[in-house]
Amino acid sequence: MLRATYILSSLAVLSAVRGQGVGTYQTETHPKLSWQTCTRSGCTTNSAGTVALDANWRWTHVTGNYTNCYTGNTWNTTICKDNAECAKNCVLEGANYQSTYGITTSGNALTLKFVTKGENTNIGSRVYLMASDSRYQMFNLMNKEFTFDVDVSQLPCGLNGALYFVQMDADGGMAKSSNNKAGAKYGTGYCDSQCPRDIKYIDGEANAVGWTASPNDTNAGLGNYGTCCSEMDIWEANSISTAYTPHPCKTQNSGGQQRCTGQQCNVPDRYGGLCDPDGCDFNSFRMGEKNFYGPGKTVNSNKKITVVTQFLTNNNSTSGTLTEIRRIYVQDGKVIPNSKSNFPNLFPAQDSITDKFCDDAKKGFGDATSFQKNGGLQQMGAGLAKGHVLVLSIWDDHTANMLWLDSNYPTDGDASKPGIARGTCSTSSGAPKDVEANSPNAQVIFSNIKFGDIGTTYSA
C-alpha cells in the first residue's frame, strides 16, 4: 500500500505546532477514557485512563505574550531564526478539547469530530492514550491481543478514522531532549514510518530552518527534518474500506524514534530511508474480496464493529519472534473470520499477515519490497517488544486524497490489475477542500478498548 505522509491541518489562527515549553493561558486537562486489561480470569477496568492531544494541533506563542511562533503555514522568522532558540522562545498551550477540537469522551468511548467551528476552524485531530498525566501508556503487543469497538458509519470517502501504534518515547522525548519541557502531557514526540517532515518540533528543536509552506494546505509545510519510528496500523478506515498494516523501521532501539534528514527520511528515494513507508497491508477489497467490508456487507460499516487483532509469536510468549498478525471481527453477536486473499492465479488464499503472505502479495501486485528490506515481521516484532504508544486520529489527506485506502491507486493504473482497486470511491473523490466542505459533521467513535492474553478480549 502506498500510504500518504500525514500532513495534518489545524487551527487557522491558533496554528498547529509542536512547541516545547508550556504556556499559562489554558489549563491542560486530559479527557478521561477508561479501558480494560484482560486475562483468563477476566477483564479489569483501568478507570484512570485519559487522552492527550498531539502537540501539532496546539497554539504556540512567545513565552509571556500572545505573539504566534507559527501562523498559517509559515514560521515567525523574527523569533525562529535558529531551531534551538525557537524552541526555547516558544511555548505550547493547553487545549480546550471539546469546543476547539471536537474531542469528547464518555466512559470508555472517544468521539473525534472532523470539522469543529468556533472562533476558529479546526480540521481533524490526533490523541494518545495516557498512563498518567505526564506519560503515555505503553503496550507490548507480542503474544497479545488488542480489541476495540469502532463506528465509522459517518466517515465518507477521503477520510480516515485511524487507530494505530507507534514507537514513541513514553515521556514524549523529555529525557533525551533538554529543550523539551512539555513532554507527553502536551502530546510531544510523535513519529511514524513515513518519517513525517510536517512536524514542527523534533528532539527539542524547531523544524523552522528550511521550512517550505505547503502549496495546497494553508496550515502545513515541510521542514528539513523528519521523525521516524516503527508503526503498526491496527485500523485505517472509513465506511468504504479498511486496512491493517505493519511498518518496520531500522532506526535506533529496534525501530524507536529517530530524527532524520535527507535520504534517511525517504527523500528523494521513497524506499531508501530508515523505515518502510508502504508496509504490508491487508485490505480485504484490495485482496479481491469486494463484498466483505462496507455498508451492508459481511462486516457492515453502517453499524458498530468489534475489531480484534492478535500478535502471534513462534513460541507463544512475549519474548518470541513475531510470525503472524491475525484479524477477527465481531458484529451482532457473531464472530466473523477475516476474509482470504482471492487471487488463485497469483498466490494461495491467505487470511492473515505473515512473511509468506507479504512475499506473495508484493510479488503478485508488483509492489516494492521495502517491508522485507526493513526486516519484515521479525523487525516489526523487535520494535513492538520495546513498547508502543496508542494513537487515535481522524484526518484527510492533502497528498493523495486517501485514494490509497478507498479507490483505485495509483489512479493511472488498470483497475482490473490485482492490487490496484482498494475500494469503491471515485478517483476524483477525497480532495480535502471537498471533504471539508461537504462532510464537516463526519466523525469516528472508538470505544471498549481491551488488551490482554490471546482469546480473552472478545466473545460472540
Automatic annotation (TrEMBL):
<dbReference type="InterPro" id="IPR037019">
    <property type="entry name" value="Glyco_hydro_7_sf"/>
</dbReference>
<dbReference type="GO" id="GO:0016162">
    <property type="term" value="F:cellulose 1,4-beta-cellobiosidase activity"/>
</dbReference>
<keyword id="KW-0378">Hydrolase</keyword>
<keyword id="KW-0119">Carbohydrate metabolism</keyword>
<dbReference type="GO" id="GO:0030245">
    <property type="term" value="P:cellulose catabolic process"/>
</dbReference>
<keyword id="KW-0624">Polysaccharide degradation</keyword>
<keyword id="KW-0326">Glycosidase</keyword>
<dbReference type="Pfam" id="PF00840">
    <property type="entry name" value="Glyco_hydro_7"/>
</dbReference>
<keyword id="KW-0732">Signal</keyword>
<comment type="similarity">
    <text>Belongs to the glycosyl hydrolase 7 (cellulase C) family.</text>
</comment>
<dbReference type="InterPro" id="IPR001722">
    <property type="entry name" value="Glyco_hydro_7"/>
</dbReference>
<protein>
    <recommendedName>
        <fullName>Glucanase</fullName>
        <ecNumber>3.2.1.-</ecNumber>
    </recommendedName>
</protein>
<dbReference type="InterPro" id="IPR013320">
    <property type="entry name" value="ConA-like_dom_sf"/>
</dbReference>
<keyword id="KW-0136">Cellulose degradation</keyword>
